């Protein structure tokens, strides 16, 4: 499996799963309630806005199943990377421009240390919209490609072992996301 002819395929399989986790989307997906709380949403409104994100995730994954073979993996990954970067920068820029740090936490949550200014309702709505756009872009591109691309890289005799190795990278970096994102949110400045 690790001979010179397969080394690049192994690296590609690992990297697509690693960058799926490090794209920033999973840190948003896992902890969307924190982002919605930072945007000023509370209670049931926060839960509903957070839940809509998962509907967006499923709805935008469906066209990918139908059109991915026509578009191609590379183009879809490049498109997804570019637009996910735009949406992440838009979220961060909007929050930075129209928000402030809350030392010690916001409304009893030690993890939520940033909040949007009360006089910026349009900025709060923009953060929610950019979050949905990020999830839609991710679902349309990286979310499914990371699962269908690695098996296509390897010959049948190596496919099971190689895909298992690539998938282990997904789980390892998913664990890292889960472990390091809350302290990251807690130390936003």
Automatic annotation (TrEMBL):
It is a multi-pass membrane protein. It is found in: Membrane. Signal peptide: none annotated. It comes from the Eukaryota. Pfam families: Sugar_tr (PF00083). Residues 1-189 form the Major facilitator superfamily (MFS) profile domain. Its main location: membrane. Keywords: Membrane, Sugar transport, Transmembrane, Transmembrane helix, Transport. The chain crosses the membrane at residues 47-68, 75-92, 126-149. SUPFAM superfamilies: MFS general substrate transporter. Gene3D superfamilies: MFS general substrate transporter like domains. Belongs to the major facilitator superfamily. Sugar transporter (TC 2.A.1.1) family. This is High affinity glucose transporter. It comes from Sporothrix stenoceras.
